[in-house]
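WARN retry 2 of 3 for item q-0093 after timeout on previous attempt; input resubmitted unchanged.
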Amino acid sequence: MTKLAANDPWLKPYEERIRRRMEFTHSRERSITQGGDVPLEQFADGYLYYGLHHDEKKGCWVLREFLPGAQSVHLIGSFNDWQTMSVWKLKRIDDYGNWEICISDKALRHGDLYRLYVHWGYGGGERIPAWATRVVQDPTTGIFSAQVWTPESSYTFRHARPSRSEEPLMIYECHIGMSSEEGKVSTYKEFQEQVLPRIIDLGYNAIQIMAVQEHPYYGSFGYHVSSFFAPSSRFGTPDELKALIDAAHAAGLKVIMDLVHSHAVRNEVEGLARYDGSRTLFFHEGPRGDHPAWDSLCFDYGRNSVMHFLLSNCKYWLDVYQFDGFRFDGVSSMLYYNHGLGECFTSYADYFNGHQDADAMAYLTLANKLIHSVYPDAITIAEEVSGMPGLAAPIEDGGFGFDYRLSMNIPDFWTKLITERTDEEWSPGAIWYELTNRREEEKTISYAESHDQALVGDKTLIFRLADADMYWHMSHDSRTLITDRAIALDKLIRLATAATMNGGYLNFMGNEFGHPEWIDFPREGNGWSYHYARRQWSLADNTDLLYHDLQEFDRAMVHFIDGEKDFLSLPLEQYHIHEEDQTLVFGRGDYLFAFNFHPTNSHTGYAVSVPEGTYSIVLNTDSKSFGGYDQVDGSLSYSTQPTEKVTTTACPALEKLLLYLPARTALVLKRNTDK
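OK item q-0093 returned
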C-alpha cells in the first residue's frame, strides 16, 4: 500500500487509483526520456537549444524554433527592415519540425528587434519566437517584439542561495510594477532599492514575485502569459532582475516565482496561439482548449513537446535567474477537465471520479521531480482550492511532490465570518477548526488574505472592517469605534492565522499595514489610471497614523515567529475554547496564545488550564505601539496554580492560570523553563 493511503484510512478505497496515477506518471516519464536513456534534467535543457544563442566557437548567431506545421519561416526585424528575404530564411533541419538559421556575428547587434514570419499551408503571420528570452513593447505603437540581448557585461551572481531550513517560511507576496507610491509602473531596480529593505526590516524570509513572465496586458496581474522564457521588460532588464534576486539572497531571503503553467494568453503574434498555424501545437483543440472563466487557452500536457517546453521553462528560471522555487498558479484548473468549476468536493470520491486530467497530474508530478533534482533545496507551492489529497506529499508516497499547498480555505473563512456574522457570533471553535483543518502530513502556507482579496470587486480584511472610516479616521487623533474595532480584529486574525501554521505564512505587499482601498490596474474603465495600482508606503511611515501601528504589529509578529527556528516542530495543543466567552487558548511548545474575540466583555482573572510554570508576555495585540490601549501590564509574570490535574497528549500536567484578557485582544506568553 502507498504511504499516502496507509496514513489516511479514507484513501484506502482509492489505493488502486493512486497506484494507476503513479504508473501513468512513470510511463509518461519513460516516454519523454526515451525509456530512461535521457535523464529528466537533460530532457529539460530545451532552453539551451531553442531560441537565439551566440555560438562563440563558430562566431555566429544561431536561432532554432520548433514549428512542425510551418512550410517556411523567415527571420524579420529591425536589421532587415522587417522584410521576408531569402537570406534570412530558416532551414528545416529534420522531419520532427525543427527550424534553424545561422547568422553572421556582425549581422545582429545588442538591442535589435526581431520576429518570425511563419507561412503555413493556408496562410501565414508574424510570431514572436516561443523560446525568446527578451521581449519588449514599443512605447508608441504598443507592438511587442523579441530583442537581441547581449550587453557588453552581463550580471554575475555574487551570492549563493539561502540553504533550506526547518524555520517557518514567511512569504512576502509582491508585484514589482505596483510597488511604487507614484502612479507608474515601477522597476526591478526601484523595488530592490526602495521595497526590499522594507521587507528585510519586517522580518520576512522569502519574497514571492508575481507577473515575472512577459504578458501583453498589464491589468492581467501577470496571469495571461505570452512569452514564458522572458522576464517582463516593463519592469526593467534581465540583468536588473538578476541583481534584485541576488540582493535578496545576500540578505538571506529566498525568492519564489509565481509560475503560470495552467494556461496561456490567446494572443497569436505575441503568444503561442496558432504558433505554426495550428491550435494543437501547444493547446487542446475545441472546447477543452478554452478556459471558460479566464478567456485563455489550456495546454495539452499529453504532448511530449508541451512537456518539453514547460519542464524546460522550470529549469530555465532556476538555472538562469537563480530563483529558489515556484508557486504554481491555477493547479485546480489543471487537475480537472472542468477546471474544478461548479464542483463542491464534499467527499473523497470527488477526487477519484474520472474527472481528473491524468496528463496534467503527470506533468505536475514530473515538474516537482525535475525541480528538486535540479535544485534539491527548491520550494514548490501549489495554489489549489479543491483539497486534492497528496498534493504536498512525496512522489514516492503516492503524492505529487509539492513542498507546500496554499490554505485557500482560510481567507475565504475570514471573509465569510466578517460579512455574514455579527461580532457576537464569532465562534472560537469554528476559528480553531478552520485554521487547523488540514492533512497534517502535508505542509501548508496559511494566510489571511493575498492579492486575490485586494483586487477591485473584492475587499481586503481591513477595508471590510473599517470601510469608509479608513479614509478619515485612521489617525490617533480622529480614531473611532469603527477603526478601533477594525485594527483590533485585523491583528487577531493575522496572529491566529500565523500562529496555527504548519508550514508557512503569506502576506501580500501592503496588507501588513492595512493598505486602503483596492487594486485596479490601468484600464479603459478607469481612464487608464495608476491611482489604484500602487502602494502608499507613506501611510505606514507616518507615526501619527494607525497604519504605522499595524505595520509595527506585523513586524513584531513576523520577527517573533521567524526568530523561533523550531516553531514548526512545536506541536499545536488546544487548551481552552469557550463559545459564550468567545475565548480560545492554545499552545506551541512553551508558547501560549490566548485570544478574546468578544467585542465588549473583558475577562479579569480568567482561568485556563495550561502546562504548569511561570509565563511572561512576549506579544500583546493591545500594546499602544500596535494601535491598542495598553490595558495589560506587559511587565507582569503569571504563575500557574495547582489544581486538579488534567492530562493531554502533549502535556500530562496542567494547572490553572489566571489572565486578564481585554475584549478583542490576544496575548502571546512564554513559559519560563529555567530551573
